[in-house]
Amino acid sequence: MPDYDAILFDNDGVLVEPPSDETLRTAAEDAFRAVGVESPDEEHVAEILRGVTPESLDAVCGVYDLDPDEFWTARDRHASAAQRGEFREATRARYDDVAAIEELSHDFGVVSSNQHATIEFVLDHCEFRDLFDTYYGRELGLESLDRKKPNPHYLDRAMADLGAETALYVGDSESDVVAAHRAGLDSAFVRRDHCRGVELSVEPDYEVTDLWGVEKIVNGG
């Protein structure tokens, strides 16, 4: 049976439902308008929804002569506000199977590439605050874009907070698996409906269909 000091979790798609493309698209369009671009090209809107890199952001900003830091901060502010709206309007919620981990005795942390402000909101709205001992999302601003997964930066910080030497990181994307391995952690890939057909080019240590599977891993079931 694995003997982990801690269990770390991605947020979106693991603890709570992922944001919708429509929500992120509206937020991106609002961010463009906030910096004076009224009619951005659809391709450029799509480029900043998910998986943004410093290089792709620079390319988009170059088209409209935008300051990358100013635009990325606007994008994150609008994306965070839009996601909070999803929870308030009950179009997005926590997964019921979070109940599977609530009785585990491990230290818990959340490490997400979403905005830190969004994670703070989710912890309170979904009544997770007492469950997790530490949590990290990205700070507003361009610097945090370099620190998102698969960079293990926030995983390393969470491990330091917990004083843990061994941990399992639970995620729903290839970048989660890579970040875990770069941090020297085991990885568990949760193959929920939204990532059912995803093909990974890296091998997670475990693959499960829900958080009950995670509970079985750490309890040796």
From TrEMBL:
It holds the Pfam family HAD_2. GO terms for biological process: DNA repair. Gene3D superfamilies: HAD superfamily/HAD-like (3.40.50.1000), Putative phosphatase, domain 2 (1.10.150.240). Keywords: Hydrolase. SUPFAM superfamilies: HAD-like. InterPro entries: HAD-like_hydrolase_sf, HAD-like_sf, HAD-SF_hydro_IA, HAD_2, HAD_sf, PGP-like_dom2. PANTHER family: PHOSPHOGLYCOLATE PHOSPHATASE. Belongs to the HAD-like hydrolase superfamily. This is HAD family hydrolase. It comes from Halorussus gelatinilyticus. The lineage of its organism: Archaea, Methanobacteriati, Methanobacteriota, Stenosarchaea group, Halobacteria.
